[in-house]
Amino acid sequence: MKKKPAPLYRKKNLRDVTTRDYIGGVKAKAKSRRPKAGEEETASVVREIAPLPGVGASISVRAAKAHLSGLLELVAAGREVTITSGGKPKARLVPLQHTTERKVFLGSMEHLKTMPPWKGGPTADEIVRADRDGRGW
After folding, report:
1. Using CA atoms in the order 65, 66, 69, 71, what is the torsion angle rounded to 10 degrees?
2. pTM for the full predicted model
3. In this structure, are residues 45 and 66 in contact, taking their beta carbons and an 8 Å threshold?
4. pLDDT tens, 13-48?
């Protein structure tokens, strides 16, 4: 019987291996102060907002996408912001004005039965088809 050839490498005993983490002392991580709700976002958004002559406070589309929640908080607080693309105004964010709420339709089958019957004219399907045909779809 032939002897097996000697391996080209020898398995190392991992107990004898010292990793770099244990050579020097492990550095303690500095605790970071966690910002309060909305504090950091609002501050970073304010840095991105720049005044444009004749337009007012403006922010680029990319910055608005990156800081959308903070931007919405500023607008909800009453500030108007214009979103620009390529230096040109594209949209304006304004705070909502509280108006009287619209009456919600609480329709039911009984209500629909009291409606007058349909007396002709184009159906919704016909209107949609005519619109699509007019556009060349």
Report:
1. -70
2. 0.44
3. no
4. 666 655 655 555 555 555 666 656 555 556 677 888
